[in-house]
Amino acid sequence: MSAWSAPPAPSWLSGWDEAAHAGLYAVLGATLGYGKHHATVSPPHWLLVGIGALYGATDEWHQRFVRGRSPELGDWVADVMGVLLGYTILLVSLGWLARRGEPVEKGVDATS
Predict the structure, then answer these.
(1) pTM of the prediction?
(2) Cα Rg for the chain, rounded, in angstroms?
(3) d(Cα 77, Cα 98) in Å, to the nearest integer?
(4) In terms of Cα–Cα distance, which of 110, 102, 79 is closest to 1?
(5) CA-CA to 15 of 20 to 30 Å: which in 22, 24, 42, 58?
(6) For the chain, how far is it from start to end, CA to CA, in angstroms?
C-alpha cells in the first residue's frame, strides 16, 4: 500500500492513520514471533524486533519517492509499536498455551 499515491481507507479510519500502521505492523510482529518460536536456532528478541523496525523505516523512506506521500516519524513509531505488540502477544499466547498443557509445536522436524 505504501506505493499507492492515495491508498483507499474506510471513512471510519479517518484520523486513525497511526492505529492502522500499528495494526498492520502487529501482523509483521506476530509473524516474527511465530518464526522465533518455530526456529531450530532461536535468534534474540532484539534482532527480530529490530528487523521489524528496520522494515518500517525502509517503508517510510520509500514513501518519499511516491507522489502525494511523505515519510512520517509518527508513522514509523506506530509501526515499531505494532511490531512490539504483535510479537509480544504471540509469544505470550504461546507461553500461556504451553503452561496450560496445550500442544504447542516447537521447531521443525528435518526428517519429514
Answers:
(1) 0.78
(2) 17
(3) 32
(4) 79
(5) 58
(6) 37
Answer whether 102's CB lies under 8 Å from 95's CB.
no
Q: What is the pLDDT of residues 31-61, one digit of tens each?
A: 999 999 888 998 999 999 999 999 999 999 9
CB 40 within 8 A of CB 107: yes
Cβ atoms within 10 Å of 12's Cβ, excluding its own:
7
Tens of pLDDT, residues 5-41: 666 566 655 667 788 889 999 999 999 999 998 889 9
| Residue 18: Cβ within 10 Å count | 17
The x, y and z cell numbers of residue 85, run together, are: 505488540
